[in-house]
Amino acid sequence: MTDWRWDYEPDAQHVIGGINDLGFIARVEERADELVRMAVVLYLESRTYEGVSPRLGEEVIEGGMFVYQIVPRHERVYILQVTVL
Known about the structure:
Blueprint: E1 5-8, H1 12-16, H2 22-42, E2 57-61, E3 64-71, E4 76-84
């Protein structure tokens, strides 16, 4: 069983506070769900992972973009920055 999920880092208010486009936020969160499913497959032994941390990733989606970090030992995809274009 996996405990993988995604979170806003440090919190939602800091990352998406002030963004009023709920459709855009929904697209960010849908893509974050997909990234979690990908991480589950890529890091099967996540809790004992000793490799180099993956680089920051960027996702361009309709209406903007976001920056994320996968941290295998935390079993998290952290959404660090969201930008509306």
